[in-house]
């Protein structure tokens, strides 16, 4: 497979958020800010720096505001923060970050685990956050026949209806394929496709 000519792809490194969030070791805000600085110095133009979640639920992301304060801001680097609810939005708005990231899971179970909310509640939260943040383009993966998600997304990639236990796998396939295309376009090693979602982070 080869990438189509004339297609612009913008990469966002989520290592300081999604990467560190899945590590057992909890790094202090200063170390996380330094990671953001080094990624920016390496040439990355978009970085998801923090997540505005409860410290007791996700200790790896504690002290998001302090991380933002310690980062050396640059006009060449756009920094974003992940927001799951209204309280997260309030914290985000006070930091002056450049971009807000929101997320919706494909299943009820994952939404409950990830954001302590049903899919309907998560959609309502995203709608509220986007209304507060202003107009923003949204892309989503949804099940064929879903009439709810298209109300909130400008671009929707549809996947077949699947038992809930298998839905995350089905949703991951188009995202992995997209990651592969980006990796090829960047000249990145694609010999380990299972790692593409982490090594080539796209939004």
Structural description of this entry:
By secondary structure, the protein is α/β, with parallel strands linked by helices. It is built from eight helices and five strands. The strands form two sheets. Strands 1-2-3 form a three-stranded parallel sheet. The chain has a two-stranded parallel sheet with strand order 4-5. α2 packs across α3. The radius of gyration is 17 Å and the shape is globular.
Coarse shape: globular
Helical run tally:
8
Mean pLDDT: 80
Q: Helical amount among residues, as a percent range? A: 40-55%
Low-confidence stretches: 196-203
Structural class: alpha/beta
What kind of assembly state do the chains in view correspond to?
single chain
Major beta sheet, strand line-up:
1-2-3
Topology at a glance:
Elements: H1 15-21, H2 29-41, E1 46-52, H3 64-70, E2 78-83, H4 86-93, E3 99-101, H5 108-115, H6 119-133, E4 139-143, E5 155-159, H7 167-186, H8 196-199
Parallel strand pairs: 1-2, 2-3, 4-5
């Amino acid at each position: 497979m080869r990438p189509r000519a004339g297609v612009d792809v913008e990469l966002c490194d989520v290592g300081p958020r999604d990467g560190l969030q899945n590590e057992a070791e909890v790094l202090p805000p200063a170390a996380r800010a330094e990671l953001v600085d080094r990624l920016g110095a390496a040439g990355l133009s978009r970085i998801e720096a923090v997540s505005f979640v409860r410290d007791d639920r996700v200790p790896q992301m504690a002290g998001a505001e302090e991380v933002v304060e310690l980062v050396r801001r640059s006009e060449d680097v756009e920094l974003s923060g992940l927001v799951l609810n209204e309280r997260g939005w309030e914290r985000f708005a006070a930091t002056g970050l450049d971009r807000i990231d929101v997320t919706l899971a494909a299943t009820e179970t994952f939404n409950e685990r990830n954001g302590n909310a049903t899919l309907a509640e998560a959609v309502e939260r995203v709608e509220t956050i986007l209304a507060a943040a202003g107009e923003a383009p949204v892309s989503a993966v949804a099940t064929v026949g879903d009439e709810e998600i298209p109300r909130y997304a400008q671009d929707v990639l549809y996947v077949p209806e699947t038992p809930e236990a298998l839905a995350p796998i089905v949703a991951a396939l188009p995202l992995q394929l997209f990651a592969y295309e980006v990796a090829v376009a960047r000249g990145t090693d694609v010999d380990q496709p299972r790692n593409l979602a982490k090594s080539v982070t796209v939004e």
